[in-house]
Amino acid sequence: MAANPTAPTALWPAPHARGAVDATVHVPGSKSVTNRALVLAALASEPGWLRRPLRSRDTLLMAGALRAMGVGIEETVSSSSSGAGGTEGCGEAWRVIPAGLRGPATVDVGNAGTVMRFLPPVATLAAGDIRFDGDPRSYERPLHGVIDALRLLGARIDDDGRGALPLTVHGGGALEGGPVSIDASSSSQFVSALLLSGPRFNQGVEVRHVGASLPSLPHIRMTVDMLRAVGAQVDTPESGGEPNVWRVTPGALLGRDLTVEPDLSNAQPFLAAALVTGGRVLIPDWPSRTTQPGDRLREIFTEMGGSCELTDHGLEFSGAGRIHGIDVDLGDVGELTPGIAAVAALADSPSTLRGVSHLRLHETDRLAALTKEINELGGDVTETADGLHIRPRALHGGVFHTYEDHRMATAGAIIGLAVEDVRIENVATTAKTLPDFPDLWTGMLGSDGA
Ligand SMILES: O=C(O)C1=C[C@@H](OP(=O)(O)O)[C@@H](O)[C@H](O)C1
Ligand SMILES: C=C(OP(=O)(O)O)C(=O)O
Fold it and tell me: Is the pTM of this model over 0.90?
């Protein structure tokens, strides 16, 4: 009987590139934008549209959870102008119809940080109990910043005392809100979560981060930009406020018509393919202005040996056939670390990736997983206190384990382009944010392998 390629234990032979890639890759919508847009549309006072939403495990879990709390989300195929990069044509669109939020309901967060952090504040606004549960890994991911803050702001939440999932929010139909201090050094999503629902709290919300460092600042800027786009008033450190303090004024949110940008972090493996094979990749609709952390790839992959040009057609990225090591702080753009580590393992000099200790609490412990898997292929990676030190070595084939982490799977695929006989365990785990990955990857390589 043929092996089921979607079984978690299945091994996917990562395609080995036989030449330089030359491809145009249409990357689906951003997970982070789609899930923020869904929350904001659900909290608005009128219906809104999301065009070109990402359809992946994380976003379908978000949509399912909001529906369970009473929100209407209709999926349609639209034929309107997209607005993104001027492209016209048919595309999927979701119409979000807000309604009085209500329980009882059960929310499956899967292993989506955005769902497990953004929705408990929404649930405090529901009338009734909202139970949150998810994958075993979701029990280990930090949530205390959200739970403790919501309790201080007036919410009733039952958890098992660990400050983590599973938990029940006893929604009272409204939340008082006001000022709150949190330590968000383990996840920027604590701050984003409180800000997103903030306009609907009676007093709004003022979030003060009091911990050491704060990761993923571009994702907080994304939250602020998207809140402002739906009419919220937000004061930030950048707009003249105090450092590490964000303030959201209470008020109604508008229903908007938003086109979701391509996911630039999911563009990473395709850009990496150009770098690794000395080829060329065009990503259409790359935004000229964006808060997505993936935009930093233009600079990072250029420093590693590539070159890029942002044109009316999108981002054209080329590799020169040589990859250089890099010493870089990835604290702002942590989700790019697995892909950068994979490229760095194939470089002509060592790399140091810093500022990402919080990755130990992502989908898996990414620092441990990258170290183990690259080393099992013959690599020389060591973990540091806040990142990785990578000394390139001649690699050989083998099984690349993925720990149910989509970015481990795409990192393994990047290595497989340059190293024969790399087999990726459970490539289907890419469905978390990019269900089409295997097809897009083989499509990029074409019938002749590149
Ligand atoms: O808000 C978001 O959409 C995200 C924020 C970041 O989380 P952390 O700050 O927990 O790293 C990022 O890694 C994650 O992929 C998406
Ligand atoms: C850390 C990530 O996801 P999450 O939203 O689950 O935190 C990621 O996508 O790299």
Answer: yes
Question: Tens of pLDDT along 247-304?
Answer: 999 999 999 999 999 999 999 999 999 999 999 999 999 999 999 999 999 999 999 9
* Cβ-contact 342, 412 below 8 angstroms: yes
CA distance 268 to 325: 17
**Dist CA 266 CA 31 (whole Å):** 9
407 lines ligand 2 (CB under 6 A): yes
Total H helices, total E strands in the chain: 12, 23
Name all domains of the chain by residue range, CATH numbers in brackets: 11-28+262-445 (3.65.10.10), 31-259 (3.65.10.10)
Closest CA to 401 of 422, 380, 379, 418: 422
Structure tokens at 58: 């994380």
The answer to whether 383 touches 358, Cβ cutoff 8 Å, is no
Residue appearing with tokens 């959870």: 65
206 CB under 6 A from ligand 2?
Answer: no
Do residues 301 and 275 touch, judged by C-beta distance below 8 A?
yes
User: Residue 333's Cα: distance from chain center in Å?
Assistant: 10
Contact indicator for 112, 61 with CB cutoff of 8 Å? yes
Q: Around Cβ 76, how many Cβ atoms within 10 Å?
A: 11
> What confidence category does residue 79 fall into, taking pLDDT thresholds of 50, 70 and 90?
low
Q: Are strands 205-209 and 178-182 parallel, antiparallel or unpaired?
A: parallel
Among 38, 189, 362, say which to mutate for ligand 2: greatest number of ligand atoms within 8 Å of CB: 362
Q: Which two tokens stand for residue 397?
A: 């084939």
